[in-house]
Amino acid sequence: MKITSAEFVMSNSDVDKCPNNPIPEYAFIGRSNVGKSSLINMLMQRKGLAKTSGRPGKTQLINHFLINKNWHLVDLPGYGYARVSKSSKKTFQKFITQYFEKRQQLVLGFVLIDCRHEPQSIDLEFMEWLGESQIPFAIVFTKADKLKPNALKRNIDVYAEKMLETWEEMPMYFITSAGNGTGRDELLDYIEQINLDMRNQ
Ligand code: GTP
Ligand code: MG
């Protein structure tokens, strides 16, 4: 997919106040600091579009971006960051779960996973919750530039093995780097194909 325009629309903590135009929407979710905002900027090739930071907890609201005038991309706050959700690391911010439960326009969530880390229970639990809630998702491994190819492959294999303890098959996944653009075409083409299929239904 060629990106012809990418505009910030609005920030919200209330899913009911999000834009109400009935266009397909894709949301990026994952632990704080996993690289959600950086990935969005990489996909859109616009450095400052989504705000990024070396310190976790940068994105605090539901941020809508209008892409090519016909679909929405959503940057969400991270989960699992103690300063944000103090009571328990396993508590996802309420407005995040409400967003996924209530947002009619949501087509699919991209769950971002830092490719350097072993499978973390908070991500596995979030994906299980998505599954139980029947919300489609795909996995996006981030920061691929930080690993050598062998280590990257090994970590993905470990992740897939872990997923197969719970899931019948490994969900669709992408390997990406905001640093060098790895995975950009694949991820955008995936979105484009879903948008096309929906239009032709
Ligand atoms: P919150 O909004 O706090 O939840 O974080 P986020 O998931 O949006 O992460 P963000 O994009 O702000 O990136 C966090 C840090 O990781 C920043 O210092 C980025 O520069 C760095 N980073 C993100 N993606 C990559 C990547 O692909 N490669 C490398 N090397 N660093 C990355
Ligand atoms: Mg962010």
Q: Gist?
A:
With 201 residues, the chain is an alpha/beta fold.
What does this structure look like?
The protein has 201 residues and is an alpha/beta fold. The chain has one domain (26-144, 168-199): Rossmann fold (3-Layer(aba) Sandwich). Helices cover 30% and strands 21% of the residues. The protein has helices spanning 36-44, 94-102, 121-132, 149-163, 184-199; strands at residues 6-12, 25-30, 62-67, 71-75, 106-114, 137-142, 173-175. α4 (149-163) links the parallel β6 and β7. The protein starts with 5 loop residues before the first strand and ends with a helix. Magnesium ion (MG) is lined by residues 36-37, 58-59, 75.
Give the bound compounds: guanosine-5'-triphosphate, magnesium ion
Query: Per DSSP, what share of the residues sits in E-state strands of 2 or more residues?
Result: 15-25%
CATH topology value: Rossmann fold
CATH architecture: 3-Layer(aba) Sandwich
Sequence of strands across the biggest β-sheet: 1-3-4-2-5-6-7
Instruction: Report the biggest beta sheet as strand number plus sense, adding barrel if it closes.
Output: 7 strands, mixed
Summarize the amount of helix as a percent range: 25-40%
The dominant shape is globular
How many distinct beta strands? 7
Number of helices: 5
Q: What is the rounded Rg? A: 16 Å
Order of helices and strands: EEHEEHEHEHEH
Output the CATH class name. Answer: Alpha Beta
For this structure, the quaternary state is: single chain
Structural domain count: 1
Please describe the topology of this protein:
Layout: E1 6-12, E2 25-30, H1 36-44, E3 62-67, E4 71-75, H2 94-102, E5 106-114, H3 121-132, E6 137-142, H4 149-163, E7 173-175, H5 184-199
Parallel strand pairs: 2-4, 2-5, 5-6, 6-7
Antiparallel strand pairs: 1-3, 3-4
The protein binds guanosine-5'-triphosphate and magnesium ion.
Residues 32-38, 52-54, 56-59, 77-78, 142-143, 145-146, 177-179 line the site of guanosine-5'-triphosphate.
